[in-house]
Amino acid sequence: MSKIENEIQGVIDGILIDYDKERDIDKLDALCEPDKKMITNTVDQLIRVVYPGYFKDRTNRYYDIKNCMTVVMEDVAFRLNRQINIALRKECDSENAEKCRCGSICARQADLDVMSETITIDFFKRIPEVREYLETDLEAFFDGDPAAESLDEIILAYPGFYAITVYRLAHVLYELKVPVIPRIMTEYAHGQTGIDINPGATIDKYFFIDHGTGIVIGETTNIGKHVKIYQGVTLGALSTRGGRKLQNKKRHPTIEDNVTIYSGASILGGETVIGHYTVIGGNVFITSSIDPETRVSVKNQELRFDSGSVEEIEANFN
Predict the structure, then answer these.
(1) Whether 44 contacts 87, CB under 8 Å
(2) Mean pLDDT by 10 residues, the chain (318 residues)
(3) CA 172, CA 289: separation in Å to the nearest integer?
(4) What is the value of pTM for the model shown?
(5) Coil vs helix vs strand at 70
(6) CATH superfamily assigned to domain 201-318
(7) CATH superfamily label, 25-194
């Protein structure tokens, strides 16, 4: 017999015993947790709902697009309601009664059924509002990027626009106080695009992300209208040493209307306000407020040129 055949059962038994230590990571009932795969599939279906003429399920045949979208939306509503119900029940079963929506950690399942159905309906009622905001974002992308050949190209190909779309949907669920699911949605977009927008951030109309890779927007960030952000920008917290004590406090900056933030800039702190019509240059590090109509930049760094062999150049840097 091979080494694996001789030893695998003993190794497996050791892992099974490790599950019995009653730690947070030792939960065994996966049905009590929201289904991450189903939520990410629901995101893809919601993208179809938002842009019905752009993303299609090739397995379906139909004569009337609206009839098809009716089926899609009913399917999304069914699955989303189920996942919201699980997330709410999980919260009510937790030891933290203060966070529980129903005010008691022993809420009846019927109460949660009504609550999840109400949230699902409220979410769908707000989809037209989400689409209104996305129409302004689409306009901002097209006006802001001369490389964009068409609006179709932006919807189909731009990672920044995709990340904003998912964020705007997740933000509605965040405002409806749905636990876990909004974060799964935006982290799914983060994995797809490299753009990390917390669903709790507040972002107004005409928001433009160019290129996008490496952007981080924290939970308590406030962004006004007509804001442009380029790759590598961080809108973050000044310090996280306070840990859980900082929860529900303003930790991230406020960006007022018509601000442009160029690549590599870091703007940190809940009390930091970037005034309207301000331009933040690349690679700056800001931890205090900036007055409106200000240009912020780093003074040109001195360039150094060395000639000689690779060994000589490396020696000069040591």
Answers:
(1) no
(2) 82 84 74 87 94 73 73 93 91 56 54 92 97 97 95 96 98 96 97 97 98 95 98 89 72 97 96 97 95 91 71 60
(3) 29
(4) 0.85
(5) helix
(6) Hexapeptide repeat proteins (2.160.10.10)
(7) serine acetyltransferase, domain 1 (1.10.3130.10)
